[in-house]
TrEMBL record:
Name by which UniProt lists this protein: DUF4349 domain-containing protein
Residue intervals of the DUF4349 domain: 65-276
Coiled-coil zones: 183-210
TM annotation in the entry: 255-279
InterPro entries per UniProt: DUF4349
Keywords for this protein: Coiled coil, Membrane, Signal, Transmembrane, Transmembrane helix
Signal peptide from the UniProt entry: 1-23
Keyword Signal appears in the UniProt entry: yes
Record has Coiled coil as a keyword: yes
């Protein structure tokens, strides 16, 4: 018996025991629908805890491992659009599907276009996918990331099982309800459990789809337009020197691009400034005002009768 099976069996046993005890208390003490719903929630929590313990065991022993794979491939081909069509044919042959596709036609002799695709392929085909893509074009870069979702999958399975039993129990309480209050409470609890069950099932289906079909982003360029590969950490002095020189060249190239963008504006500004300077120099100067002689007070003459 696998760990997953043991987890589900333990979950069923725990919930069945709690349900039986709750049913006995309900029949003996007249438990209301609200009290039964609260007791049922405690049972669901206990079942979830039991599933979590099983998940740890599965992760430790390596049983029933479920892994999500995502990859990114950079390719070069003389005709990227034609290569993209071959990738679509390859994905169909692998029983996969294309989730997104973008193609750009070339705009001249030195620009033959590019293509980008997001494809989903069966996880079992991921091991040979680089070789399959290599038959279409040159694979310049291929990166794969993995995520172990075994615990998440088993947790969802345990919760779905417990919630299904909870829905059955709420349905039985609704059928046996005798008062309007009990009917309303049972209907509310049942609706809540059904919504939770649908949410868990949808989440589990999405997770199963991610495990079954791996996502691969494929970018296709011409050999002349292929982007530079990701730079790894330099391992030796020469690698560091090469990396530094590449960074220096890239910086100089960027500075030259900025200068090329600003140069027309700088020339225009220089011409305008020169014109203003010439105009100011050629403008006739205003005539200077004639200096006025300082006024001196009159010299007093001899007094009369002196």
């Amino acid at each position: 018996m696998t760990t997953r099976t043991r987890t589900l069996v333990a979950t069923l046993a725990v919930l069945a025991a709690l349900t039986g005890c709750s049913a006995d208390r309900s029949s003996d003490s007249g438990m209301t629908a609200a009290e039964a719903a609260a007791d049922d929630a405690a049972a669901l929590s206990a079942a979830g805890d039991g599933g979590g313990r099983g998940q740890d065991t599965a992760a430790d022993t390596g049983e029933d491992q479920q892994v999500v794979q995502t990859a990114r491939a950079t390719m070069t081909a003389p005709d990227p659009v034609a290569a993209a069509r071959e990738v679509v044919t390859l994905v169909a042959r692998l029983d996969g599907r294309v989730d997104a596709r973008y193609e750009r036609s070339g705009r001249g002799e030195h620009d033959t276009g590019s293509a980008t695709l997001t494809v989903r392929v069966p996880s079992s085909a991921m091991a040979s996918l680089p070789e399959d893509l290599g038959e279409i074009g040159e694979v310049e870069e291929y990166l794969v990331e993995t995520e172990n979702v075994t615990n998440a999958a088993q947790d969802l399975d345990a919760r779905i099982t417990a919630t299904e039993l909870s829905v059955e129990r709420m349905s039985a309480l609704l059928a046996s309800a005798s008062t309007n209050r009990d009917i309303i409470e049972a209907e509310g609890a049942l609706t809540e459990r059904q919504a939770e069950l649908e949410r868990l099932r949808s989440e589990r289906a999405r997770l199963a789809d991610r495990v079954a079909l791996s996502t691969v982003d494929v970018e296709i360029y011409t050999p002349e337009q292929a982007p530079e590969a990701l730079v790894e950490e330099p391992a030796t002095f020469l690698d560091g020197l090469e990396t530094g020189w590449g960074a220096f060249v890239a910086t100089v190239r960027g500075v030259l691009v900025v200068i090329g963008v600003l140069l027309p504006w700088l020339v225009l500004g220089a011409l305008v400034g020169a014109g203003v300077l010439v105009w100011r120099r050629r403008r006739p100067a205003a005539p200077a005002a004639a200096p006025t002689a300082p006024t001196t007070p009159p010299t007093p003459g001899p007094a009369a009768g002196a």
